[in-house]
Amino acid sequence: MEKLQNFINGTYVPPKNGQYIDNYEPATGQVYALIPDSDEEDVLAAVDAAEKAFPIWSNMSIEERSKILVRLSEGIERNMDEFVQAESRDNGKPVSLAAHVDIPRAVSNFHFFATAITHFASESHHMEGVGINFTTRKPIGIVGCISPWNLPLYLFSWKIAPALAAGNCVIAKPSEITPYTAYMLGKMAQEAGMPAGVLNILHGTGPKVGDAIVKHPKIKAISFTGGTKTGEYIARTAGPMFKKLSLELGGKNPNIIFADCNFDDMLSTTIRSSFANQGQICLCGSRIFVERPIYEKFKEAFVAKVSRSKVSFPSDPEAKLGAIVSEAHMEKILSYIALAKEEGGTVLTGGNRVHLPAPHDQGYYIEPTIIEGLSYDCRTNQEEIFGPVVTITPFDTEEEALMMANSTMYGLAGTIWTTNLNRAHRVADQLQSGIVWVNAWLVRDLRTPFGGVKASGVGREGGWEALRFFTEAKNIFIKYE
Ligand code: NAD
After folding, report:
1. Which pLDDT score, from 0 to 100, does residue 240 have?
2. How far is the CA of 230 from the centre of ligand 1 (A)?
3. Which residues line ligand 1 (CB under 6 A)?
4. Can you name the residues that pair with 321 across neighbouring β-strands?
5. Domains with residue ranges and CATH for the chain
6. CA distance readout (Å), 107 to 110, 112, 441, 478
7. Catalytic site residues?
8. How confident is the model at residue 116 (pLDDT cuts 50, 70, 90)?
9. Tell me: the pLDDT tens digits for 248-263?
10. Ligand 1 atom, smallest distance to 205 CA
11. N or C terminus of the chain: which is more exposed, having fewer CB within 10 Å?
């Protein structure tokens, strides 16, 4: 069985404790690789390497650093098919999704920040007759990047790319549930000519190696994407150490559909925003609010189309939904469907585990599920499920829609469907979330701020926001004589 290794100081090495954990293929439910069960000792080795590499990397000209990162992005692009297959196998997502979304986006992330850094400028503030302030922005030093399993290389690179571009050395940990493409990235860094120790990739569990990264005093900033509970723990640990923190956490996003929307566009996009990646995208709209005059029409059309969506193994080109990422997560999703029924919900379509024929008979598959008849404030409508499960709820007024949409502890993203421009502005302005799409979903411009409010996180990623996060500002004032 293949044994993955950590990438430390520019080479692949086994974990110091010699221990490994199982890596499952969600499509079959079988273990297909072993990953290092790293701990504090591996973090110490990575920090040591990063410390030695920092003067080299941070003093390298921006042009040279940029070239290395461009080469890294080109390396992923050259090996696109290998990355696509690996991502799909590790995560369970349809190959077509990895090919169209995940891996191309990882390429873009590196390319975007490799070139962004060459345009990144700092500010000066002139005080008439008094003097001038100018602000320098320097890399922080060694930073930690911890990412989740749902968009593995996509989110891993979304953090690593700006951290490296800004001149930091990185200790990164992908999710232990989807380590494979992060493992492959080490080789791309070698081939791109990245100096040893600049990028270190450690594998293992959150409580063990993740915690050791968060606690290491020489790691000065933590960029984390994952669940709200984990984010809370990280904030509690890193806060008193005065580390810079970027936390991208959970969501329970509303999708608000007004009767005057372009119905066909809305319907096809709503199917994607509900069930893409088996609903395991932090931006998926899991609470659908529909204006009453079109509620029945929407319900009928939505249920009819979704019930025909094919759930299949990831390499099936017809698959609209692939496998759920793990058995534990599948059980969690099924328990929420059971809860929804207890809370009085009616399952309009789906609701069950899907059993495919061998060799996928032990895989983790769930039907796309639509539930109605629940109150907006029940647990099913308040807690993050993060699976192929949505609820639909009618509303009568804009105020009511906004009240229900804003009723959760989360505030990551929201979608509004209307052709009334005034209403689009009004509702977008009042939605409590970091991101709003009007008549669209998941249209991403890498320059825009990305992140949430309330329990969905602290800070923003993307564009200058990310480069500012991964640098320290110093203001210098010079008096005019
Ligand atoms: P998770 O919080 O369980 O794990 C995320 C990462 O943190 C993993 O690498 C894990 O090993 C690590 N980790 C766990 N405990 C840790 C600890 N004590 N110290 C340090 N690291 C630790 O989340 P998950 O289940 O992998 O991902 C799903 C969650 O991620 C969902 O809540 C989803 O909404 C969220 N998410 C948010 C965004 C966003 O941009 N806001 C994007 C994708 C996913």
Report:
1. 97
2. 6
3. 146-150, 155, 173, 175-176, 205-207, 210-211, 214, 225-227, 230, 233-234, 248-251, 282, 384, 386, 412, 452, 456-457
4. 311
5. 2-249+456-478 (3.40.605.10), 253-445 (3.40.309.10)
6. 6, 8, 21, 42
7. 248, 282
8. very high
9. 999 999 999 999 999 9
10. 11
11. C
